[in-house]
Amino acid sequence: MDKTNMSAFFKKYTMVIALILITLFFTWRTGGNMILPQNVNNLIAQNAYVFVLATGMLLCILTGGNIDLSVGSVVCFVGAIGGQLMVNKGWNPGMAMVVMLLVGIVIGVWQGFWIAYVRIPPFITTLAGMLIFRGLSNVVLNGLTLAPMPASYLALFNSYIVDVFHGNSINITCIVVGLIATVGFLAASFAGRAAKAKKGYALKPMGGFVGRCVVISAVIMVFMWRLAQYKGIPTVLIWLALIIMIYAYITSKTTIGRHFYAVGGNEKAAELSGINTNKVYFLAYANMGMLAAVAAMITIARLNSANPTAGTNYEMDAIGSCFIGGASAYGGTGTVPGVIIGATLMGVINLGMSIMGVDANWQKVVKGCVLLAAVIFDVVSKKRAK
Q1: Which residues pair with 160 in a beta bridge?
Q2: Among residues 191, 215, 233, which one ends one of the domains?
Q3: Same domain flag for 184 and 296
Q4: Which residue, 89, 29, 150, 66, is CA-closest to 322?
Q5: How confident is the model at residue 7 (pLDDT cuts 50, 70, 90)?
Q6: How many structural domains is the chain composed of?
Q7: In Å, what is the CA distance from 174 to each residue of 184, 187, 223, 231?
Q8: Matching InterPro entries, A to Z (predicted)?
Q9: pLDDT, tens digit, for every residue of 222-240?
Q10: Coil, helix or strand for 277?
């Protein structure tokens, strides 16, 4: 690999390398506790909301570095409504979830309208939303915590997939699912390469392609092996996998997904080429409201309660995950897999420092430094490219 290819490789996989190194560091510092099966499970459970919100935040950022400051408050408000319906009103969890989803969509549509069609800056619109929905959350809850959630509701997010093979110390179903996921990934990768070759597109060197496939396959199997040693596949992981796959497909394979990148790259050029930029902005924030509702469902299930402080600083975790994962502060650049790497990196830092007993205030300092470093790297890289 020559110097140019080496530079391109490290630039593309900077955060992947950082994630590996940080994981190894905390594994060393915690005496191996970092990668215990239970802690791998905790990494998913404690950061599930980040993966969901960061996926939606990516679409907002793609439109030009815009963000949504209201998502934490929306999570709290939607969760408060769900708590009232299920705990105080005795509603069926399925009906309550439909109402929560609709409330999130309405909030997203409301904010998307002002941003897209009235052209009020997203920062101002969502800052107002942050204050409004945090206040409404306290009104709905009357300052109280509602608990516990119905057992049937908790089972949707806090339970584990049954091991149909009835393994003893190892969850065999988890291993089988890992093998299926690995085979599916490899099949999709080689099919995609074959399709590019057929169309005459430039292909990456076979060595690098195979190496990437081997590493990702190994990560999948090691991850599933650790889960299999605890309780198996958590149900929330199924929700996350569905959301990640859907949005990875939308952003990489659909016309509307390409429109988000076009608007963020050059809004005027996108408009002149026939793209309805207002619609793109509207969809980004309407979608963010919907995913905030999904994050609210996950959050109140995780806490087994709806309380007035839920969702605090969630927007910062989502925004940080996007920028750390390679999304550009100027818009037009970023991928769902990159965001997932960023969210995982944030989760590893949180979990590692918690296991080490690092003070919560110092944890915030470290996360702030990591975020700043990621944005500096993005800005400096773009200046050098020019």
Answers
A1: 234
A2: 233
A3: no
A4: 66
A5: low
A6: 2
A7: 15, 20, 10, 9
A8: ABC_transp_permease
A9: 999 999 998 889 999 999 9
A10: helix
How distant is the alpha carbon of residue 66 from its chain centre?
17
pTM above 0.85, yes or no: yes
Whether 32 maps to a domain, the answer reads: no
SS (H, E, C) 42-62: HHHHHHHHHHHHHHHHHHHHH
pLDDT digits 0-9 by tens, 321-360? 998 888 888 888 889 999 999 899 888 988 889 888 888 8
Q: 248 and 355: one domain? A: yes
- Domain enclosing residue 111, as ranges: 39-159+234-385
Same domain for 371 and 263, yes or no, is yes
The radius of gyration of the chain's CA atoms, rounded to the nearest angstrom, is: 21
Q: Are 256 and 250 in contact (CB under 8 A)?
A: yes
3-state secondary structure of 209: helix
Looking at the structure, do residues 47 and 175 belong to the same domain, yes or no? no
Instruction: Specify which residues 146 forms β-bridges with.
Output: 306
At residue 234, φ and ψ (nearest 5 deg) are -70, 145
Query: Which secondary structure element, helix H or strand E, spans residue 368, and what is its range?
Result: helix 360-385
Across-strand partners of 234?
Answer: 160
44 and 144 both lie in a single domain: yes
Residue burial 345-374, b: 16+ Cβ < 10 Å; e: rest: bbbbbbbbbebeeeeeeebeeebeebbeeb
- Cβ count near 179 (within 10 Å): 14
